Amino acid sequence: MKLEGIPREMIALRVSKEINDGDYVNLGIGIPTLISNWIEGKDVILQSEIGMLKTGPLADVDMVNQDLINASCQPVIELPGTIYFDILESFTMIRGGHMGIVVMGAMQVTDKGDYAGWANPERGLDIGNIGGSMDLCAGAKKLFLAMEHTTKEGAPKVVKHLTFPATTAGKVNMIFTDLAVMEVTPKGLLLKEVAPGLTAKDVQSVTEPKLIVSPDLKEIEF
Amino acid sequence: MNKVSPNVEEAIADVKDGATIAVAGFFACGVPRILLQGIINKKVKNLTLCCGCGPLVGARAELDALVKNKQLKKVVDSYGLDRSMTKGLQNPFEQAVRKGEIELEVVPMGTLAERYRAAAAGVPAVYLPTGEGSVVEKHVVTNIVANRKPKETREFNGRRYILEYALKPDFAFIHAFSGDTEGNLRYAKTARNFNPVMAAAAAYTIAEVENVVEPGKLDPDCVHTPGVYVTRMVSVPRIKFAVTID
Q1: Which residues of chain A make contact with B83, given a CB cutoff of 8 A?
Q2: Could you report the predicted ipTM of this complex, rounded to two decimals?
């Protein structure tokens, strides 16, 4: 059964609460991109793999510059203090451990912190688009996932073992979904917050690995 | 030392069948479209195009023509397929990849950057952590099963690293915003991306340049690609293109 949770924008809002003044952040494609709408006013610098620090918001139609896009191929604008650099510099920042927080989307995640996101076997190809995802995982100080808790049909995406090709193993720190906030711990997934109206039992019913319910379990806080 | 060719045909005159060409650009941004159009018109075949992040997804008309003319043997990229599965099924390039008519080797973006950099700097291979826990550490990731060569790994300070080899193309196709006639280049904003590292990696680098100026006109403190890496250049108009992709 598919449970009713919070909308994608609210998942993004919840993740944004973990991003603090002074953080250098890289946001992946999908729900993570929406986080940029919620960090206005924070002293946070967004890095874009294409070679940009202090990435600005999306460009209005009349402001589009064909030499200025973000890593999702969307036209963006400059901010005071925006800088550009080449791809080597960009991945020196990414792989070298200079990104404080990386937020990615995912197709599947396990209680060990493994996740899959680069190839969907339903496409019928055993290759896909890796982009910068594996480099971001290799270097992130903190790796968060922002994703739907289940498939459209209600099947778990939080699983015991990945059935989709892995992007990384054991690197995920926190998982933010439409139903819950979970932390990856050495003992397993710690369920810390649930969507309004849901119980820990509800979330467990659509989650494959056994959840450790936090003694401080609460509703998702925005 | 004047490196300017009078036209695209002369700039790419040395590109022959079977060439391996690095194609700069990040999706639609910083792609050497006019040089790609040059090899389409020249009809050279059996090409291997080494990319960084989806320049052929961004330059879709050029990709379609290369596929239609059966000019491609292989593409190396971190992001070579359409994002959308349904659009991918309609894409002639993906159809050729599915049939095994064109090889697609998929490499993490930062690993590609380092492999070009290694080639540029005379380094045969590098150890990288990227791909740890994925198929990338097991073997070369390609649609052609016979080419899935195993990878070597080694532990340093308790962490596993993957041995990745230098990627040295015969040619690099570069798109620059400005350059002097001796091949010193500057790029605009995020159109820089893979251009500098590919220009340095290739044995023979050809740059299409929007604004060609005389030596002395570029601020010597602000050159992105030193002219020593550039073999030929050609003056090109600034063409408009769709920025976004499907």
Answers
A1: 29, 129
A2: 0.96
